[in-house]
Amino acid sequence: MLVAFSISPSSADDTGGVSEAVAAAVRVVRESGLPNETNAMFTNIEGEWDEVMAVVKKAVEVVAAVSPRVGLVLKADIRAGFTGELTAKVERVEQALEQ
User: Fold this and answer.
1) What phi, psi does 38 have (nearest 5°)?
2) How many domains is the chain partitioned into structurally?
């Protein structure tokens, strides 16, 4: 399964930024060992249901440790029998663009 998610702490640091809290969540994802990527809006992660959801939960927990309220946006692509889709989906679109 592929999951794209975004975690937003309700409170910011002294400058109004949330990058430290978001970085803590991304660190959890990267340390999980699951295929992942982070862009300006979401972090994408690939794996089996239980392992992906455990990582998302832990990422929310590290943000909740520094913020009294946390927002989570999550989108999942559940397709049994497929792996490597984190990059394969993009490659298929790029191939179609070349036609």
Assistant:
1) -125, 135
2) 1
Distance from C-alpha of 16 to C-alpha of 43, rounded to nearest angstrom:
21
**Helix pair 49-64, 19-31: axis angle to 10 deg:** 150
Which two three-digit tokens encode residue 52?
């992906």
Return the CATH number at 13.
3.30.70.930
Q: Which long-range contacts (CB under 8 A, 24 or more apart) does 87-90 make?
A: 89/2
CA distance 81 to 23: 32
Q: What is the pLDDT of residues 26-69, one digit of tens each?
A: 999 999 999 999 999 999 999 999 999 999 999 999 999 988 89
Q: List pLDDT tens digits, range 62-87.
A: 999 988 899 999 999 999 999 999 99
What is this structure's pTM?
Answer: 0.89
- Which residues share a beta bridge with 48? none
